[in-house]
Give the backbone structure.
Amino acid sequence: MLLLAHIRRGEVLYDLGAGDGRIIIQAARKFGARSTGIEIDPERVSHIKEKLESTRVQAEVIQADFMEINLSLADVITMYLSESVNAKLASKLEHELKPGARVVSLDYFLPGWTPEKEVTVNSGGVTRKIFLYRAPTAK
């Protein structure tokens, strides 16, 4: 997902529904991104904080509902959500993201958006799709 997004050093990445924190850790460690995970589950947030401390990776995790967070600073958004959540999120992203910001979604398309690129990958014997979108340059 991070390779498809072409994330660069110093760019701001938000991982929506950060899960186990692997995206924010890799974005910071391998790409030098300023990465933040947004996760609503307090147990997952605690686990991510422990992982960040043990790996000494400089990244941030926020316990919050990403629908309540302003995403306008993001250069890249990563997400592995669901079809119904993506449908609710599509309008928020359209209104908040700066022109040219990239959105990478695993397995689920973003309704109303046209992917710039769609890649099929094999992960542990499972075929997955990754969609890359770009926020419109004119609003």
Observations:
- Residues 2-134 form a domain with the Rossmann fold fold (CATH 3.40.50.150).
- The longest strand covers residues 126-134.
- Residues 42-55 form the longest helix (14 residues).
- Residues 81 and 125 are 21 Å apart (CA to CA).
